[in-house]
Automatic annotation (TrEMBL):
May interact with ARGONAUTE1 or PINHEAD through their common PAZ domains. Residues 372-525 form the Helicase C-terminal domain. It comes from Carex littledalei. One of its GO terms (molecular function) is helicase activity. Residues 841-951 form the PAZ domain. GO terms for cellular component: cytoplasm; nucleus. Residues 978-1127, 1164-1312 form the RNase III domain. Its cofactor is Mg(2+); Mn(2+). One of its GO terms (biological process) is ta-siRNA processing. Residues 555-642 form the Dicer dsRNA-binding fold domain. Residues 27-207 form the Helicase ATP-binding domain. Residues 1338-1404 form the DRBM domain. This is Endoribonuclease Dicer.
Length: 1408
């Protein structure tokens, strides 16, 4: 928080107006009436006036008002300071904005949201200028515009541009009623070295359209604010000894020449050579300055700091640098440091004897003077000192020097500099604020700063300011002096002895304040002069739709910004090239080859106007073709136009992870309606009778439904993986049958009993289910088949056992005994009709039953809690029979049951039953057969008196059949669901896709079945990218590859696909979990509630979470299903009907520049023979081989757009080839691996070299030439492995792979979008294509899978030195650490090499 204190140092009230001084109130009243510039000394309370003025406008700014107030400050440091003052002393909603927040990338919607939310914007002026130019903000919406340090409004500064381009233009258009009130603040209205104060003040007033307000004399302010005592401190004019200086200066000069000569050899024809040479020259000049003005020790310190600087530091000092450039700076600095070190005594203790250090040339006399001045304040309590310097390097080395001195011990010392192109000590806004806060709090006592702290820094306790370097003008002098705010503070100016000119200038600066005040008061009564016509008549281009504007002065930077957004690689940087013909007053602008406009010409009067005119014309043309949007901004790679068909604006919000869980309507009915339906559709579920179960052939089952399942399920066959092997199941529609209500109830009893018994194996549950069924039967008698009410939908079907092709009603009646028992009815005792022999009556827990009824029955024993299938009677085994325990002891059954269960067997002579355990049903669709638990071949002896009869009679074969029914009906349900989705797809596409293929497309890998959507997803992904690329290439003829690639990525992104899936309610169809029979309830006893949906064929049984990735995979799989069965044309129609906005373009070629005699650039005949293709337009072939570094105007375009198109076409061709050749024999994962191995850039690069295409590439990059040469020398055409060179540690030039893709794109366009022709021409270049036998896995992936499988921990550490990547891999396995280190030209290659080395090590250990 900023402290606000009066002249005595007391903290002021938060209510400024209560303690406002007379001159502040005068200034406030004037500012309310008219535009005003308040000229008052630092510390006189200008910010108080600004806050009071804001409060007077508050009623116009409070939300929901569309208006705002804007508080502009010249530096980022002041943003937080002034915002906090406004927040502390008003209730207005304040926001702070500066460049590092990424505001440059904000769109109109973001700015609108801020305007809706905040009332005061505190920001740097460039942000407002850019917003006004883009029309994200309008002058109309600003009610109050405050300019802090408004003396910066001059030339083409952002302050000046805001006023000239937007404020004064409105004044001229007679729309002044909507203009904001202007309020400026300054401690010096003149910010130049000129002496005509009257003229300079008039210029500022005219530009700001404001009148200056000031007090009559400095004495008015002196009663309120302290003024620092100014003292000139003279230092001796000592110079570094000539012999030392000459040797070091000559050494610097030689190092510079030798190093630049070395660079010229290493970087021949490199586009960055000139830039690196300029950096080295500037670095040399910096070291010379340090040597001359600061001394040899600080020059060496500067070299040392730059030699050990990080890439971030280097980037800050030189602007954006490439890795090679950064290394060059560090290497040169290291050479300079080593050279200086030879002349410096190693054991020297700098500062121990300052006089000796100065005499020896280690330090300049000026530094000795500074140290002595600071030492005078050693006894001052709570010292706060700012040392102002001119250069950034001075601030950095001076801080280092002062921190090393024992005289400065106990003082915290920091440096603070602005952020500009030549900035070494780059710090974020937060770091700068921390330093300022530490200075205020006393943790930092001395700050060495450039002019960044001259303006606005509010530290009332600052008691010493030192001008180490002289002020450039009166404004700088006054501003720096004003930082000394504490009463009794000093302002020291270091001046060289004998420099009378500088001493006079300091005296002139001291008198300048009163002179400026007198001139301001003279002009107070005169109106503002009109703004000069030269400032208002500047040429501009205006976008009518948005009002966005670009002027002659801003167009050059816009062109550079546009070029910087164009794709580039390590071999070239996209930048404009100007050709100026001074004699003809004619300028030509050559834009990069991937620009939408290649060349623009214009006329002008001089060099500046020529450059501005041609850039302004280029901006106009770029906007006309859509390369600049309606806000005159380069299209961001991630931007989405208002009329864009990609439609991602609300996709994230609309894409939900909660989806319905669909169930096919054909399997739903109400049991009340179903029971009285009378006629039922029948399907025979039959089994391949060559596959036998454990006890013989599996019995067929009849499926009775209320509705037809459709043609896709008749006939329909599939395999089940059962315990004894693979069992083929066939579902076949046969005929309709008629059933009475009684027969339906009997069949339902049977179905419910068998399935509940098998699935639950819980007697209590069986009793509960039986009770529910009996209750339903009682209620059913009160309903009739003609009832008009709408009962609840349930799963309704009947599974009827068959015998010899007919319904087995005997088996269906098998639950009768149990149901009679449950109904408290008499259990009928009779022989089975099939019984041909005399059989005895046996007492069971249910009732006395004949043994013929017990054979082939299912019983339950309460003492064990198990169900058993009885397959016979053990005539020789009874209660008194003996058997041997596992211990070897022989006991009778009677004593065994008594001792273990406490049960006394009473029917001692009754023969026991031979029973077998009944296994639960499994998921027989699983890819891997599971051994069935609970069922064994061994027989269990069961006392009849302990057995409750559940089913009798029922053959074991039929029981085996019903054990398969949950799985079979699950598959039927899934197929019915797929058929329902097929109807949806059919409506979109008007093409039939088999439901089996749809089922594959909706089945996730997690289901663990024999098929999943992975292969179709791979196919669909490939086609979708191809379709999107084809569409975007044709639609956006002027967009470069970067924008096209990102538009494609967005249009096929998971978010986008999920959004489309949600729109069409497709999430309800996908199957994401393994089927579990235990969770499948019996038909009619299903706990789910089924709700109707907008889709007639399906009902919803609630919601479930599905990840957006799964939804995206589903969409791609459906596209793959369509492609694999219906073909490409139908799939394009499918994409269009889905709402993707993607359509097939028959006409792809836009108007192309005519290339005269293309054979002059490449060998057309050789290339056409190589490709076995005759080009209709040979210029496409030239374009396909032209790299972006080839900036000759003869060839108008580079290959980047063709590469974008060819990449997608070739990827799809390869994917289709692999799918058609290997599917379905190979696993989906293998298809993905083969695709990755066949379509990577390394693969293409090797193919290009084998075909000799490296000789045909048009480029102008020495680095690319060097890399291709290295590749050929070390590698040549002999290598044929699938790693394609990475295992040799060679960096494969991406350009080589690019040309394969661009050639594919060229053939695709020239052949009229014929992919078959593309594949026919390109395939021979790619041979041999990777096969399952030759596939080599990525070692990084292989190591990762091994570590995951074995629970090993792995770690990679990467460092970069001299352009090479060093990767260390460590694997913790069984308490042992295995470590390897490898080097590569890039991180990717080095990581592969080190992963392979660790894998080899682990495999060797395993083998040992």
């Amino acid at each position: 928080m900023v402290e606000v204190r009066d002249a005595k140092g007391k903290e002021m009230s938060s209510d400024f107006e209560t303690y406002a001084r007379s001159y502040q109130l005068e200034a406030l009243e004037k500012a309310k009436r008219e535009n005003t510039i308040v000229y008052l000394e630092t510390g006189s309370g200008k910010t108080l006036i600004a806050v009071m003025l804001l409060k007077s406008y508050a009623h116009l700014l409070r939300k929901p008002s569309p208006f705002i107030g804007v508080f502009l400050v010249p530096t980022v440091v002041l943003v937080s300071q002034q915002a906090e003052v406004v927040q502390m002393h008003s209730d207005l909603k304040v926001t702070k904005l500066w460049g590092e927040m990424g505001v440059d990338d904000w769109d109109a919607a973001t700015w609108d949201s801020y305007v809706d939310q905040f009332e005061v914007f505190v920001m740097t002026p460039q942000i407002l200028y850019d917003c006004l130019r883009k029309t994200f903000l309008q002058m109309d919406c600003i009610k109050l515009l405050i300019f802090d340090e408004c003396h910066n409004a001059k030339g083409r500064s952002p302050y000046a541009c805001i006023m000239t381009e937007f404020y004064h233009r409105k004044v001229q258009s007679n729309r002044s009623t909507s203009l904001p009130r202007i309020f400026g603040m300054t401690a010096s209205p003149i910010n130049s070295s000129g002496s005509d104060y009257n003229k300079e003040i008039m210029r500022l007033e005219s530009l700001m359209n404001s009148k200056v307000y000031t007090v009559d004399s400095e004495s008015v302010l002196s009663q309120y604010i302290p003024f620092a005592k100014t003292r000139i401190v003279l230092y001796k004019n000592s110079v570094i000894p000539s012999h030392v200086y000459i040797r070091l200066d000559e050494k610097l000069r030689r190092l510079k020449l030798e190093y630049i000569s070395k660079l010229e050899k290493e970087m021949t024809d490199s586009p960055s050579l000139d830039s690196v040479k300029r950096k080295i020259s500037r670095l040399h000049d910096t070291f010379v300055y340090c040597l001359t003005d600061l001394g040899a020790w600080l020059a060496a310190k500067a070299a040392e700091l730059l030699s050990i600087s990080s890439i971030e530091t280097c980037s800050s000092f030189w602007g954006e640098v490439k890795e090679f450039s950064e290394n060059s700076v560090r290497k040169f600095s290291q050479l300079v440091y080593e050279a200086f070190s030879q002349y410096l005594t190693k054991d020297v203790s700098i500062g121990a004897d300052l006089r000796t250090d100065v005499q020896s040339g280690l330090l300049a006399a000026k530094l000795q003077c500074l140290v002595q001045c600071l030492a005078e304040y050693r006894e001052v309590k709570d010292l706060r000192c700012i040392v102002f310097v001119e250069r950034i390097i001075t601030a950095i080395v001076l801080k280092s020097f002062l921190s090393s001195l024992h005289q400065m011990s106990g003082w915290g010392i920091e440096f603070l500099v602005g952020r500009n192109f030549n900035f070494l000590g780059s710090r974020s806004i937060n770091e700068k604020n921390k330093i300022v806060d530490a200075f205020r709090g006393g943790e930092v006592n001395i700050i060495v700063a450039t002019q960044i702290l001259e303006e606005g820094l509010d530290v009332p306790s600052c008691n010493l300011v030192v001008r180490f370097d002289p002020a450039g003008n009166a404004c700088s002098f006054i501003q720096s002096r004003g930082r000394a705010r504490c009463p009794g503070s000093d302002f020291l100016v270091l001046v060289r002895e004998g420099d009378i000119l500088m001493q006079n200038k300091v005296q002139e600066f001291l008198n300048s304040g009163e002179k400026m005040r007198k001139e301001s008061l003279k002009l107070a009564s005169e109106p503002c002069e009109p703004l000069g016509s030269e400032l208002l008549e500047e040429c501009f281009y205006l976008v009518e739709k948005t009002g966005a504007i670009v002027t002659s002065s801003s167009c050059v930077s816009l062109i550079y910004k546009y070029c910087s957004k164009l794709p580039s690689d390590r071999y070239f940087k996209s930048s404009p090239r100007f050709v100026i013909d001074k004699a003809a007053n004619f300028a030509t602008l050559h834009l990069p080859k991937n620009s939408a406009v290649q060349m623009v010409c214009a006329r002008g009067k001089d060099n500046l106007s020529l450059k501005q005119n041609v850039c302004l014309e280029a901006c106009k043309k770029l906007h006309e073709v859509g390369a600049l949007n309606d806000y005159l901004l380069p299209h961001s790679d991630f931007s989405i136009d208002d009329d864009d068909d990609i439609g991602l604006k609300n996709a994230t919000e609309l894409c939900t992870e909660e989806h319905p869980d669909y169930f096919p309507a054909v399997l739903l009915d109400s049991w009340r309606t179903f029971t009285f339906r009378g006629i039922y559709c029948c399907y025979m579920i039959s089994f391949d009778q060559h596959s036998f179960g454990r006890y013989g052939p599996v019995g067929n089952v009849l499926l009775a439904l209320g509705s037809d399942l459709g043609s896709d399920l008749s006939p329909y066959s599939f395999n089940l993986e059962v315990g004894w092997g693979s069992l083929r199941v066939t579902l076949q529609r046969i005929y309709n049958i008629t059933l009475s209500a009684y027969q339906v109830m009997m069949a339902r009893r049977f179905q419910t009993s068998v399935l509940s018994l098998l699935i639950d194996q819980d007697f209590a549950k069986l009793e509960e289910v039986t009770g529910q069924l009996l209750s339903f039967e009682k209620k059913l008698s009160s309903f009739s088949s003609s009832s008009s009410s709408c009962p609840t939908k349930e799963v309704c079907y009947l599974l009827l056992p068959c015998k010899e092709g007919r319904i087995d009603w005997a088996a269906i009646s098998s639950p009768t005994v149990f149901f009679n028992k449950m109904s408290n009815k008499t259990v009928e005792v009779h022989h089975l009709s099939s019984c041909k022999v005399e059989c005895g009556l046996v007492l069971t827990k249910t009732a006395p039953l004949f043994t013929c009824m017990l054979k082939n029955s299912v019983v339950y024993t309460a003492h064990s809690g198990h169900f058993y299938f009885v397959d016979g009677v053990l005539e020789s085994v009874h209660a008194n029979s003996s058997f041997e325990l596992r211990t070897g002891e022989s006991v009778t059954y009677k004593s065994y049951y008594k001792s273990k269960y406490g049960i006394t067997l009473t029917c001692e002579s009754t023969p026991f039953l031979a029973g077998r355990h009944i296994a639960r049903p499994h998921n027989y669709l699983l890819q891997h057969t599971r051994k069935e638990k609970g069922e064994s071949n061994g027989s269990v002896e069961l006392p009849p008196e302990l057995c409750s009869v559940i089913l009798c009679p029922l053959s074991v074969n039929m029981l085996d059949s019903f054990k398969l029914m949950p799985t079979i009906m699950h598959r039927v349900q899934c197929m019915a669901l797929a058929s329902a989705l097929k109807e949806q797809v059919h409506c979109m596409q008007n093409v039939n896709i088999p439901s089996t293929k749809i089922l594959e497309a909706i089945t996730a890998k997690k289901c663990h079945e024999k098929f999943s959507y992975e292969s179709l997803e791979t196919l669909g992904d490939s086609f979708l990218k191809y379709a999107a690329s084809q569409h975007l290439f044709a639609k956006y003829e002027h967009h470069h590859e970067g924008i096209l690639s990102n538009k494609k990525d967005m249009s096929v992104s998971n978010t986008r696909l999920c959004y489309i899936g949600c729109l069409h309610n497709l999430g309800g169809y996908v199957r994401t979990e393994e089927f579990n029979p235990k969770l499948r309830a019996c038909p009619g006893l299903n706990p789910h509630m089924y709700a109707p949906t907008s889709i007639n064929e399906v009902y919803s049984r609630g919601t479930r979470p599905i990840k957006s990735k799964v939804m995206a995979d589903l969409m791609e799989a459906l596209i793959g299903a369509s492609l694999s069965t219906a073909g490409e044309a139908a799939t394009f129609l499918f994409l269009e009907r889905l709402g993707t906005g993607i359509r097939f373009h028959k006409r792809m070629a836009a108007e192309r520049p005519i290339l005269y005699r293309p054979e002059m650039f490449v060998n057309i005949n050789r290339l056409e023979k190589l490709l076995d293709y005759k080009f209709n337009d040979a210029s496409l072939l030239v374009e396909a081989l032209t790299h972006g570094s080839y900036q000759m105007s003869d060839v108008p375009r580079s290959y980047q757009r063709l590469e974008f198109l060819g990449d997608a076409v070739l990827d799809h061709c390869v994917t289709m080839h692999l799918y058609n050749k290997y599917y379905p024999a190979m696993t989906p994962g293998l298809l993905t691996d083969l695709r990755s191995a066949s379509t990577n850039n390394d693969c293409y690069a090797h193919a290009a070299v084998k075909a000799g295409l490296n000789r045909d590439i048009l480029h102008a990059s020495s680095e690319l030439h060097r890399q291709i040469t290295t590749y050929l020398q070390k590698f040549g055409n002999l290598f044929s492995g699938s790693s394609y060179g990475w295992d040799a540690g060679i960096a494969l030039p991406k350009v080589l792979g690019d040309v394969i893709e661009s050639l594919a794109g060229a053939i695709y366009l020239d052949s009229g979008c014929d992919k078959d022709t593309v594949w026919r021409c390109i395939r021979p270049l790619l041979e041999p294509i990777v096969s399952p036998e030759t596939l080599e896995y990525n070692p990084i992936r292989e190591l990762g899978e091994l570590c995951d499988r074995k629970s090993y921990t792995r770690n990679y550490k990467t460092t970069v030195e001299n352009g090479m990547s060093y990767v260390v891999a460590e694997v913790q396995a069984g308490g042992v650490t295995y470590s390897e280190k490898e080097t590569g030209p890039n991180k990717k290659t080095a990581k592969k090499l080190v992963a392979r080395a660790v894998l080899k090590h682990l495999k060797e250990i395993k083998a040992d």
